[in-house]
Design brief:
Two copies of one chain form a homodimer. With about 600 residues, chain A is α+β, with helices and mostly antiparallel strands. Chain A has 19 helices and 14 strands. Chain A is globular, with a radius of gyration of 24 Å. Chains A, B: It catalyses: 3-(methylsulfanyl)propanoyl-CoA + oxidized [electron-transfer flavoprotein] + H(+) = 3-(methylsulfanyl)acryloyl-CoA + reduced [electron-transfer flavoprotein].
């Protein structure tokens, strides 16, 4: 099946030139994160992703997960691969040393996660969810809970889940699962949950579920929801595994994609009740769950990038190998590989340029998360935090929408064979199709962006980002190199459209949220395009600077051309989006529900 | 599963107000095609599509086609439905009376075909291909061939195929299947063909393959390819079925979508050779096959519309039924159906407005095909033919790309349940994914458009269309109704961008095809958006006019609002596309193959 070649050169360029890894290495505890260490970690992760994970992706899709004897059975080879993943210490890469982690910066971990996702999103999801569960327990779990569960969750020996949705409703406020206090201070849970990713599987001996439930007598609505840790297998005081808890996977969903990921309907408390341990305080469950969801949202954005990179590589390989037609305007009538056809080149560059733009923006965001957590200066921390919160809907929403489009384009490059499942290109589209939905749909992200991050904020946070964008644009437009000036001109238009859109949204917000929300989808796309274009502008400047000492570098030369393509083909969409945001909400809101 | 409600009101509006059905009814032989007859045919077809075909779509997808005892076995219920389809005379709707047809205009048949595709593209494909085969035999088949095969192919008792592709290459010039002359004037074929849609099935007793092959001693390349009619079962002189021919389905492809369509690898002449009858003259096979491909291209465009309509209806039903969240800026804290959320409304209107725009453009094209075939005035015929040829790549390329996007958006409206196969929304995306590929990829369409229809033509044909667009824009901009003026303003910008793009392409074409071809993909989209926007402008004018005598019509009122939405959210993309066409080819062409 298709090979995966880790994009190490671009990742190092992004880390060193755009995400300022040297500044991250100056943060407390991150002193070891030198460029050399980063390179070594990326190389090692690249070997693991390409040699161990990537080969499982297609076979896992074909075999899928089956419920056997009441337990999901993972596809062939997955257990061995996951055991090697744990043995190599990958799940603990960015965890603190005192919990058995390697304490590497998040910015490096993000690049590594992109590779797991390129290898296989179905595989990467398991550690993604476990990291989220670890974060919640670390933040809100009692010392006893932490001591008993965290070490083996951090190491990956046990995995974690997020257990939210119930059959009757998608609103969290409608949670009906009951939790009853037991004499020993634990609780007994009863309820059915759906869409539980890796809810049960045979890769590890224990799964720790973080379950939303309602304690008897709790207030109605979202303020009466608590969070419980519910292990699949009870853990004795000495840490050994005890009895099976009253928890089981009832069925596995038949999904469009992610066939190797068990998405379970879970029954808690079919019998005497599932033993659960309260996380934090009663009735604060949603607050804790949001910790998990926030980290998961960024991680799902990285799924968009990882999938897109894999789809791109497969399309590129096919375009180089597949001979069809003669070159239009070429000098001979010999048949050529389809990469010589202009429209195929355009599709490949559309994929490549957007992937590199997303990777750059993701790295800059991840670096800001590290700064927001560890910088000594509270003002610097706050500024980074504001940037991260503003951009999070873009990372979740725009990276995944773009990844979905790129996966579909990958099939298109293949032509007819792309529609045949054996080829493997179709799987990327099927897998990508959930990324714009889970952990909050693109529409939910857009509402969060326009409502909380722009409207209620009065546009302050984004104003600070636009100042930074304008500086890059000025550097580009005053540059000696014509390609860079052209990129600067497109960035200038994009920023202008963004400013006009923000002004319109902030103004309309004062009169009520509806018009702004009617433009929220196009605005999320606009901010994504312009923010990633800003990073492509920085990339072009950095590449030009580095070319002075490395004039023969193809990587740097074509990086500038990739940025130019991005400006002409992606940033150029900003005018249309601006119009839809500023003038397009009337029809949307005036339409009667019956007239659709 | 999901219901399908034929969009009869919009179809009649389009036929009567935009496609000028009364002028078609004035053409020779079409006198019966009055609005009343059209309404009756649409209603009857709507009943068949919704009650007989639509219920088979999801079950057919789940069951799929299996090879049993060397023959593909269709899913349960398909044979009965197809028998009723033939019995009701639907395959012969637009065929001439002397061949047993009903001789109804193509513009009416196109609306009916949209409904078959909404019911099930997998089902509609069978008669689509048969009609293509009929067209070729009618045009190029000998009287004997016509007499023996046409009547039962026209009626649908037997079906037809297009047999082009071979395992070793996608270029038609590389056809290797051999045809040897036999003593009785027939030929014996030997070769393997792939991707043969409905290559074999158990719905009818005979399948007539139109096969490209090379007669011994023929010239190399495309000029040595002939076309043969190769029946699955030989037909005796008295018309009865004789022996099974040396033709069989070797395997069925496992595809992303269209699971109910048998896509076969076919072996011709495993034994003594498959008996084939030359169609037309030797070595003119490609010319005849293009007759089939041209009609098939428009028909595949209709698949894009039909699929999009079905996906829209399903998303709309879900959005009305699914209660989640409170209305932002609403007056109560009650939970509401998600159709109340602005971004969901935006998605639904994005789907609806583009479907209605495509339907209008398709009908206008189909009417032009009728005019090009039958108008008494040769100048009028030529003008219509030039319009049809110009727009055909848009019908094939843009309708299907738009349909694909709409099918994907339909999943998005569903959220998580859209990813579950049982829901049925995912199937529309899987099925739509081939429509941008088969019968010539979007890239091939774009190359045809920019090369043959714009570049070599020097922009004359499109210039004539732009004059017609400008008239509609002028009527809109001078209108008393502000909504119509707003639509006119967007159309004006769109036409301006189209003119600039055409000028740039025509100019650059003189220096060689590459820069224009590098912009061909965006140009196909731009022409699609603006041409369909032109029809939406006409729709708004017609709706406004009709409102004078029917002021309470919700259909007409919301038609104008739908056109307004199209202007603000779809036509507004024109500026970005123009930039990509005019300025975006440099990076595409300068990139080195190795640097991707």
């Amino acid at each position: 099946m298709s090979q995966y070649t880790p994009p190490l050169q671009d990742m190092q360029f992004v880390l060193n030139e755009l995400a300022d890894l040297h500044e991250i290495a100056a943060l407390p505890g991150y002193g070891e994160a030198t460029p050399d260490l980063a390179r070594a970690v990326l190389e090692e992760a690249g070997v693991f992703a390409s040699e161990v994970i990537a080969p499982l992706n297609h076979s896992g899709d074909i075999e899928g997960v089956r419920l056997e004897g009441g337990a999901p059975r993972m596809p062939a080879g997955w257990a061995q691969a996951y055991a090697r993943f744990v043995e190599a210490g990958w799940p603990a890469l960015s965890a603190p040393e005192e919990q058995g982690g390697q304490n590497l910066p998040g910015v490096l971990a993000a690049a590594v996660e992109e590779m797991w996702n390129s290898g296989s999103v179905a595989f990467g999801l398991l550690s993604l969810l476990s990291r989220g569960a670890v974060n919640v327990l670390r933040h809100a779990g009692s010392p006893e809970l932490q001591q008993r569960y965290l070490p083996r969750m951090v190491s990956g020996e046990w995995t974690g889940t997020m257990v939210l949705t119930e059959p009757q409703a998608g609103c969290l406020s409608a949670v009906r699962t009951r939790a009853t206090r037991a004499a020993d201070g634990s609780y007994r849970l009863h309820g059915t949950k759906i869409f539980i990713t890796y809810g049960d599987h045979d890769l590890v001996p224990n799964v720790v579920h973080l379950v939303l439930a309602r304690v008897e007598g709790a207030p109605a609505g979202t303020k009466g929801i608590s969070l419980f840790a519910v292990p699949k297998v009870l853990v004795n005081e000495d840490g050994s595994l005890g009895e099976h808890n009253d928890v089981r996977a009832v069925s596995i969903e038949r999904k469009l994609g992610l066939h190797a990921t068990p998405t379970c309907v879970m029954a808690f408390g079919d019998g005497a009740g599932a033993v659960g341990y309260l996380v934090g305080e009663e009735n604060r469950g949603l607050e804790y769950m949001f910790i998990m969801m926030n980290s998961a949202r960024f991680a799902v954005g990285l799924e968009g990038i990882g999938l897109a990179e894999r789809a791109y590589q497969k399309a590129r390989a096919y375009a180089r190998e597949r001979v069809q037609g003669v070159e239009q305007g070429g000098e001979t009538s010999a048949k050529v590989a389809i990469i010589r056809h202009p429209d195929v080149r355009r599709m490949l560059l559309s994929m490549k340029s957007r992937i590199e733009a997303m990777r750059a923006l993701a790295a800059v965001m991840a670096a800001s998360m590290d700064q927001a957590a560890l910088n000594q200066d509270p003002e610097v921390r706050d500024a980074h935090q504001a940037f991260v919160e503003l951009m999070m809907p873009v990372a979740k929403g725009w990276f995944t929408e773009t990844g979905l489009d790129i996966a579909s384009m990958g099939i298109q490059v293949h032509g007819g064979v792309g529609f045949i499942e054996e080829t493997g290109a179709a799987q990327y589209l099927r897998d990508a199709r959930i990324t714009t939905i889970y952990e909050g749909t693109t529409g939910i992200q857009a509402m969060d962006l326009v409502g909380r991050k722009i409207g209620r904020d009065g546009g302050r946070a984004i104003g600070a980002v636009i100042v930074r964008m304008r500086q890059v644009q000025a550097d580009l437009e005053s540059h000696a190199h014509a390609e860079l000036r052209a990129i600067g001109a497109q960035l200038n238009k994009g920023i202008g459209d963004l400013e006009a859109a923000v002004e319109s949204l902030v103004k309309s917000w004062e009169g009520g949220p509806k018009p702004a929300l009617a433009g929220s989808g196009p605005f999320l796309e606009l901010l994504g395009i312009v923010a990633a274009g800003w990073q492509m502008g920085r990339a072009a400047l950095a590449a030009d600077r580095l070319l002075a000492s490395d004039p023969g570098s193809d990587f740097l030369t074509y990086k500038i051309l990739t940025c130019r393509f991005y400006g002409d083909h992606v940033l150029s969409k900003s005018a249309g989006l601006r119009h839809a945001i500023v003038s397009g909400s009337g029809a949307t809101l005036e339409f009667s529900d019956a007239a659709f």
